[in-house]
Amino acid sequence: MIACCVIIAGNAQVLKRLGDRAKQKLERKTGDKVDEAIDKSVDDATKPKSKTEEGESTASETSESNGKVASAKSGSLKSYSRYDFVPGEKIVYSEDFATEAVGEFPAKWNTNGSGEIVTVDGIPGKWLKLQESTMYESSMKGNLPENYTVEFDVFLHYNEDRGVPWLTIGLKGDILAGHTYGPQGELTLAPNNGPTEKRDAVMYRSLSKQGDMLLDATKKNFAVIESQNKKKVPVHVAMWIQKERIRVWLNEEKVYDLPRGVAGDASMNKLSFEMSNYGGNKDDYNYFLSNIKVAAAPPDTRNKLITEGKWSTTGILFDVNSDKIKPTSYGTLKQIAGVLSENADVKVKIIGHTDSDGKDDANLELSKKRAAAVKQALITEFSIDGERIQTDGAGESKPVADNNTPVGKAQNRRVEFVKL
User: Fold this and answer.
1) How do residues 47-72 score in pLDDT, each as one tens digit?
2) Which helix (H) or strand (E) holds 213?
């Protein structure tokens, strides 16, 4: 079992402060009962799920609660024009809970409390429903490299008239002999905790290899979580670690860029999620987690495309069973567009690839449409001459990894650029 208070401490003062935080019961404010729509947002295994061309599960696109549509909208690429996150090239851990049974706790995860896999009305895929005062440790194994990225989606739906639980994301390493704590970094998301005009509180703390306080960053306030709560759609969290440096985004908003935010002499090998104490009405909040991806070494597009003649990326993502590009792909598109702009004589072919789930012909058609969508984005968003770009699709015919594992499937769902 995982101890509930293993996140951060280094000395008596830090222990006291973090102990107070862990024991905190957020004060409940006067207000109305949380929107009844969320009571119907969790499908308790009775809703049938459809299989897409790539084998992903998706719930229905609407919610009947109060007759309101609750389908997820991914936004536009324009809305992410400041987003410079580029995901790692080689996926080392991926989890979307697609193979887990609804109503059960993930088989390979660990916890000191409870949680269950659910479907959420209007949001594709399966999600881990989180409970207060609980630690969740992912099934990720093995030391991470010096340079890696971490991404995941959290659906934080809550009553804005109440204090609600915090969610802390922890990256941890092994504890040295004779020490109580090891290297760690924790990002805390605290809805309803900032000023009224920007109510999201975001915090970051880290420990050294010896378990001492390395950094206690200034609390930041943004309105990203609040905005997504009103829309009833998930927040995309992205972290980019380059040895000692860590950068963090919530959707398109960069919330931290810390040059000395990670213990550069230590290897992280655990990824965890912790819910704080609450004690209030459980109807005040519903938190869900999914679409976790950890990848090593962001790609060097200039070297691989220009000097090697080929570059493949899993960083261009699409809506489920669609050729619509997710806005979180902006950083990757911007990077390849920069290479093409700087090398005006280079022509490329864009080739879409899928995993092996679903029908062969459907996957082939989808891969071709996605390649065409990438070409159009480069033309429309970055003014790349379309005459320099050809497109094609290979469907599932050219896998680069094992289609029987989540990590392998994630590697096979990719977009390839080949210099002509």
Assistant:
1) 433 444 344 433 323 232 222 323 34
2) strand 213-216
- Find out whether 273 and 169 touch, Cβ atoms under 8 Å: yes
* The two three-digit tokens of residue 236, written as one number: 């995309």
DSSP 8-state class, residue 101: P
Q: How far is CA 280 from CA 26, 27, 148, 208, 229, in A?
A: 8, 8, 38, 35, 19
The b/e string for 248-259 (b: 16+ C-beta within 10 A; e otherwise) is bbbbbbbbbebe
**Structure confidence at residue 53 (pLDDT):** 39
Could you report the per-residue pLDDT of 107-144, keeping only the tens digit for each?
999 999 999 999 999 899 999 999 999 999 999 999 99
Question: Is residue 162 within 8 Å of 38, Cβ to Cβ?
Answer: no
> How many other C-beta atoms lie within 10 A of the C-beta of residue 3?
8
Residue 299 pLDDT: 67
The token pair at 419 is: 């210099």
User: Average pLDDT of 75-80?
Assistant: 74
Q: 305: which DSSP letter?
A: I
Handedness of CA 51, 54, 59, 60 (dihedral sign): negative
Which residue in this structure is represented by tokens 């989180």?
A: 130
Mean pLDDT over each residue of the chain, to the nearest integer: 83
DSSP symbol at 337: H
Q: What is the pLDDT of residue 64?
A: 27
Q: Delineate the domains of the chain, giving CATH numbers in brackets.
A: 12-296 (2.60.120.200), 301-419 (3.30.1330.60)
Q: Is the pLDDT of residue 8 over 50?
A: no
Per-residue pLDDT, averaged over 101-105, amounts to: 97
Q: How many residues does the chain have?
A: 420
Distance CA 188, CA 191 (A): 10
- Rounded to whole angstroms, how far apart are CA atoms 109 and 58? 22
Given a contact cutoff of 8 angstroms between Cβ atoms, the answer to whether 209 and 173 are in contact is yes
Both structure tokens of 295: 């990848």
